[in-house]
Amino acid sequence: MRAVVMREFGDADVLRLEEVEAPRPGPGEALVRIGAVEVSRTRDIATRTGKHPFSQAVTLPHVLGGDCAGLVEQVGEGVDAGLVGRRVAVSATQTCGECEACRGGHQERCLQLSLLGIHRRGSYADYAVAQASVLREIPDDLSYAEAAALAADGTIALTQLEVAGVEAESRLLITGATGALGTTLAALGAHFGATVIGLSRRPEKIPARLDMARVDSTDPDLAATLMELTGGAGISAAAENVSAPEVFAAYFPALAVGARIVVSGAIGTPELPVLPVPAAPLYVKSISLLGVRTAAHAARDRFWTLVAEGFRHPPGLVREMPLERAAEAQATIAAGSHLGHTVLTTGI
Q: Could you give the CA distance from residue 252 to residue 228 in angstroms, rounded to a whole number?
C-alpha cells in the first residue's frame, strides 16, 4: 500500500510517498481503507518539525495522520464483524478502556491516552488501524472528505462549547477564526443560536458564509471593540485555540462576569506559548479558564447525532488534495494561506 513516510524531522520535504506493508488489526481494532485524512497544524505539521512535545513520542520512520474517514475492511478479535463494509469516521484519540477514567465514561482523562499518527502509525496512507471504539458510522450522503473534516474538529468543538456553557444568546468569541477548528466552532455556535465573534489577523478572509462578526485580532482597542459588538454586555464564552499571549491580554478586559475561556489548542508556536492571566479580574469577575484536551465517547456520540440530523460545514470550507501532495498541503497550511480544512484523499 501507499503511505506518506517521514524518516527524519524537518521541513515539509521530509514527507515522501512510499510503498509499505499494510497493517493488520489486533484485538479490539479495525482496519480502515482510508478515503480522506485531515491535515492538522499541530498534530501533523508541528510534530514533523521535531520541536513540538508530540515529536518526542514519535519513532522514526513514521506515518503522520490522525482523524480520517473510510471503509472498514477487516476487524480484529472481539470486534463486531458487522462493521466490515461500513463507511466510518475515525477519531485520532485512542484510550485504554481499562483505567478508572475510562470505566467511568471519562475517556478524555485516560491515563494512557494516545494519538493515531503520533504514538502509532497514522492515516496518511491507503490503510490504517484504529481502535474500533473510536469509529462512528457516517451518513450515506456525506463524502469521506467532509467526514474527515468533521471527525477532526467536530467532537472537540462540541465539547468546548458544552464546557463553556454556550447556548442561544451566548456571546461567543473564537480565536483563529479562519482555521479548521475555528470555522467548525463558528458553524456549531451559530447552529446553537449563539452570537459568534471571530478573531483573526486577517478578518477579511473569514468566509462570508460563516454567521459571525469579524474582528481584527491586532486591533489596538480590541476590548472596546468587543464591548461595542456585544452592546456592553461583554464576552460570555471564549474558545481559545491559538493562545497568542498578546491577543489574550487584549481581549481579557472584555470578558463578562462569569465568562468561561476554554482552551483546546495552542498553535501560536511549536514550543507552546504561556498565557498572561491577570489574577484580580479572574476572581473578581468569576472567570473560569478551562482546558479540554479531547472528548469522551459520549460527546462523540452527541456530535455524530448532530451530523445524522443534518449538521454540516458551510460549503467551500473543506479543500481536497491527493495523498501524494501531502508535503504541499502542509507547506500551505504552515504559511497561513489556507482557510478551513485541508484533507488528503486517496481516490476511493
A: 15
Task: Write down the H helix ranges in the chain.
Answer: 47-49, 100-103, 144-163, 180-191, 222-229, 245-251, 279-284, 297-308, 326-334
The residue whose grid cell reads 468569541 is: 173
Fold of the domain spanning 2-154+295-345:
Quinone Oxidoreductase; Chain A, domain 1 (3.90.180)
Does domain 157-291 match CATH 3.40.30.10? no
pTM over 0.90: yes
Question: Within the chain, which residue ranges are assigned CATH 3.90.180.10?
Answer: 2-154+295-345, 157-291
Task: Collect all residues with Cβ–Cβ distance below 8 Å to 121 and sequence separation of at least 6.
Answer: 3, 23, 62, 63, 128, 129
Cα→Cα distances 323→37, 113, 347, Å = 9, 27, 9
C-alpha cell of residue 136: 462512528
Tens digit of pLDDT for each residue in 165-187? Answer: 999 999 999 999 988 999 999 99
Q: How far apart are CA 75 and CA 80, in angstroms?
A: 8
Give the type of residue at 146.
Answer: E
